[in-house]
Design brief:
Elements: E1 2-5, E2 11-14, H1 17-41, H2 49-56, H3 61-69, H4 73-80, H5 84-92, H6 99-109
Antiparallel strand pairs: 1-2
Helix pairs in contact: 4-5, 4-6
């Protein structure tokens, strides 16, 4: 390893390529372990490609997530504390939910509010 100081005073380190690649591999392994832990704890989840495709295609996000969670409109309405017809109107695009309602729906669907708006 060699340390070089640039004309601007910045310190740079030169190291053998094998050492650099080992550091990158260690960082990748640590990142993968953090992701595995987050998945195992339920903090993160893997979203199936079919769900992602539906979201990208512009389908109603509430409807896609509700379907993914295996909930009926009535189940989601009960969990969010709103009426089933209101969920239907949100999913069809006839009405927009207020921020507070959308937060309740997001909580019921176990997603971030950003995932619905």
């Amino acid at each position: 390893m060699q340390i070089i100081t640039t004309p601007n005073g910045e310190s740079l380190v030169i190291l053998p390529l094998a050492d650099y690649e080992r550091l990158v591999d260690q960082a990748d392994i640590a990142r993968a372990n953090r992701i595995r832990q987050a998945l195992a704890s339920g903090e993160e989840e893997v979203v199936p490609a079919a769900i992602v495709r539906r979201l990208i295609a512009g389908e109603n996000k509430v409807k896609v997530w509700r379907s993914h969670r295996g909930l009926s409109g009535r189940d989601l309405a009960a969990a969010a504390g709103v009426s089933a017809p209101f969920i239907s109107e949100i999913e069809s695009g006839r009405k927009d939910g207020s921020v507070s309602v959308m937060k309740k729906i997001a909580e019921a669907l176990k997603v971030d509010l950003d995932d619905l708006v």
